[in-house]
Design a protein that fits this description.
Length: 192
């Protein structure tokens, strides 16, 4: 079963091997095992949560995680006009399975990696928008989602993209200040 995933958008290109060379020693201080898989992705399990700013949380209840290169960034169908330049590289950080524990750890891992890499966070959807989506785009739900996002500090932009049905939809992309606030927001735990 696949779990939640987020993107990390970078605006300076670096080799994935160089990124891993910096991430692996750091992750080995609180994750075990940490392994580079045959395809080049990094796979790991969190064994100690205090380096991520969490306290009374048992990481053994969560599954594994992975870090891979996102070969779709930049994408031709996405509107990057909110940025002075488009992202030049992307990473995917994901959990192997769903559940509130995995969402929480993924959020805190994302925050730590975004800080380390100077990256923005692609939330891969509209935060606060009801899921599962049934292909309807209720304007009232979108208005509520936008109000939620703008109520938090930091910067969030909507990046539009082409949908499979020929339409357009948006995803939220935010900075570390926003993610820090989102992780503390009571609605964060409703995303599972």
């Amino acid at each position: 079963m696949s779990g939640p995933a987020v993107g990390l958008w970078m605006f300076e290109s670096r080799g994935f091997e160089d990124i891993l060379a910096g991430v692996v020693p750091w992750s080995e201080t609180f994750c075990e095992p940490v392994a580079t898989e045959a395809g080049g992705d990094l796979a790991f399990r969190v064994r100690e949560v205090s380096p991520l700013g969490l306290r009374s949380f048992d990481p053994t209840v969560a599954g594994g995680f992975f870090l891979s290169e996102d070969e779709c960034i930049p994408a031709d169908d996405e509107d990057y006009s909110a940025f002075s330049t488009p992202p030049v590289q992307g990473l995917v950080l994901g959990a192997d399975c769903s559940g509130s524990e995995n969402h929480l750890l993924l959020g805190h891992m994302t925050l730590a990696l975004a800080r380390r890499l100077g990256a923005l966070v692609d939330f891969d959807g509209v935060l606060g928008y009801p899921t599962p989506r049934d292909e309807t785009r209720d304007e009232e739900d979108l208005t509520k989602a936008r109000a939620l996002v703008t109520s938090l500090p930091g910067t969030v932009v909507e990046v539009s993209y082409s949908t499979g049905g020929g339409g357009r939809w948006v995803r939220h992309v935010g900075d570390v200040e926003f993610l820090t606030a989102w992780l503390r927001h009571p609605d964060f735990h409703l995303v599972t």
